[in-house]
Design a protein that fits this description.
- There is one protein chain.
- This protein has about 250 residues and is of the alpha/beta class.
- The protein has a single domain, classed as Rossmann fold (3-Layer(aba) Sandwich).
- Helix content is about 40%, strand content about 15%.
- The protein contains eleven helices and seven strands.
- A seven-stranded mixed β-sheet has the order 3-4-2-5-1-6-7, sandwiched between helices.
- Strand 3 and strand 4 form a beta hairpin.
- The longest helix has 16 residues.
- It is globular.
- The two termini are about 15 Å apart.
- Bound molecules: adenosine-5'-diphosphate and magnesium ion.
- The site of magnesium ion (MG) has 5 residues, from helix 1.
Amino acid sequence: MQRVLAISNRKGGVGKTTSAINIAAGLARLGHRVVLIDLDPQVNASRGLGVTGVDVTLHGALLGEHPLKAHATQMPNLVVVAGSEALSGLEQLTSGVPNREYLLRTLLTPWRERCAFVVLDCPPSLDLLTVNAYACATELYIPLEGQLYAADGVSKVLDLVARIRQRLNPQLQVKGMFFTRFDKRKILRRETAEELRSQYPDLVLTTVIRESILLGEAPHLGQDIFSYAPESAGAVDYAALVQEILVR
Ligand SMILES: Nc1ncnc2c1ncn2[C@@H]1O[C@H](COP(=O)(O)OP(=O)(O)O)[C@@H](O)[C@H]1O
Ligand SMILES: [Mg+2]
């Protein structure tokens, strides 16, 4: 069965896009067919995989102008549905459209047989785009930057998940949270990690993504970390995270 992974947190800058790209690439690298969907009007996931200047994007597909179209990346088996800055206007443009929470879910129906995994890079806001993501996801992963108050956004995400499960998508499961940009020399971060592990014992994954300059560089060259620096700490960490996700 196809797995649809939403990568989401209400906070910006916590590593959602970096994780969406490299989880998608990590799965593709193992031979799974993967489509990454860029739901953030900041378009970082598309750009980070070298998909720029395309006119067929998620925006037009959500508005019913054309089917969902994906673009190739450097990683075999990984394709991207490009995002668009115009996505920030979706809420207004679709007011009055019935069942607009299910627009993405409907678009993905023909993709059930085409891809084993769909990875959704969500925006930080919990608006219609995120609701569309949660309404079609089978599972949710929350990247956390290991800082004080890292848990704050989490309760809001979990509240939204509870509402979506009731109203729109009973299938949706929160499968895990993981730390990104982790620097174990920083005591503050270590304590935050321990605190979250005790608060959500079943959800905090074992793998932590270390702080690594190469992870920040790769998207500037339109590459995932496995293509850019296969021996790097970032590649090792995301490969481990993918293994953990595969057995959850
Ligand atoms: N493990 C990491 N090590 C170093 N830099 C990182 C790491 N993860 C993310 N970054 C950088 O931090 C910034 C925010 O990450 P990003 O994935 O865009 O977060 P979000 O999508 O949650 O806003 C980006 O500049 C990214 O390159
Ligand atoms: Mg992002």
